[in-house]
Design brief:
Layout: H1 4-7, E1 11-13, E2 22-28, H2 32-40, E3 48-54, E4 61-65, E5 71-74, H3 76-79, E6 82-86
Antiparallel strand pairs: 1-6, 2-3, 2-6, 3-4, 4-5
């Protein structure tokens, strides 16, 4: 069907998400500790975020919550447990 590609959103884990694009947090897998930690730093399912930078040498990712402007460093293990949808661009 023509135009279907623009409706379908691509879901990936945060590690595989393209930097600089707006991303919507679709799901958070993992245990209670991961959920509590993300809630405590202001990141919830449905929030729009952007990857500001990918650290070199396997370090943490810098993540910005677009709605409130909060910036945090997320470890790669936690980032793998966050599923996001790419909102803009053809990533």
């Amino acid at each position: 069907m023509p135009g279907m590609d623009s409706i379908i959103k691509k879901s990936v884990n945060l590690m595989d998400a393209p930097p600089g694009h707006r991303l919507k947090i679709a799901d958070i897998s993992g245990g209670e500790t991961v959920h509590r930690r993300l809630l405590a730093i202001g990141f919830h399912k449905g929030d729009v975020v952007e990857l500001d930078a990918l650290a070199i040498m396997r370090g943490p990712l810098l993540l910005r919550n677009v709605s409130c402007g909060t910036r945090v460093a997320i470890g790669r293990g936690v980032a793998r447990k966050i599923t996001v949808e790419v909102l803009d661009g053809d990533a």
